Amino acid sequence: MKQTYETGISGEQQAAEWLIRKYGMKVIEQRCRTKAGEIDLIMLDGETVVFVEVKTRLRADAGIGIMAVDKRKQRRITNASVLYLLRKGWKNRAVRYDIVEVRPDGILYVPNAFQPGGVFYR
Asked: Is 17 in contact with 62 (CB distance < 8 Å)?
C-alpha cells in the first residue's frame, strides 16, 4: 500500500510539472481533501479552474488509467469540486475536469475529459 501511495504522489508531481511546463498552468492545490473526497490537482489555466485526476501506472497499456475514472469516480470528483468552489466563494467561475495518466513511457492527457453529471468522452 505504501508503494502505491508513493507512486501516486510521484505521479501527481510529474503531472503538475508537465502541465505547468507544457500549458503554463498554475497549481492552486495538490491532494485537496473535502467531505466528498480528494482532488489530486487543482490548477488554473488562465481564468479557468481545472480539477485534475491523476492516474499513475507503472506497467499498463495507454488508457488503462483513464478508464479507471468511471462514473462513480467522476461523481466524487465533481461533488468534491463543488464543495471546494463553495469553500473558496468562487461563484460563476469557469471550471474544467481533466485526466492525466502518467506512465513510464510518457503522459497521456485528456483535457475536458468529463462534465458534471458523469458524461464521459470516449
From this structure: no
Instruction: Give me the amino acid identity at 112.
Output: N
pLDDT digits (tens, 9 = 90+) for 31-80: 999 999 999 999 999 999 999 999 998 876 767 788 889 999 999 999 99
Contact 107, 18 (CB under 8 A): yes
Q: Residue 52: which of 89, 91, 13, 2 has the closest Cα?
A: 13
Please calculate the CA angle 55-15-35 and round it to the nearest 5 degrees. 60
Dihedral angle of Cα 38, 41, 113, 50, to the nearest 10 degrees: 110
Q: Are 20 and 107 in contact (CB under 8 A)?
A: no
**Does the pTM of the predicted model rise above 0.70?**
yes
How does the average pLDDT of the chain come out, rounded? 89
Q: Kindly state the cell numbers that stand for 70.
A: 468511471
Element (H, E) at 34: strand 26-34
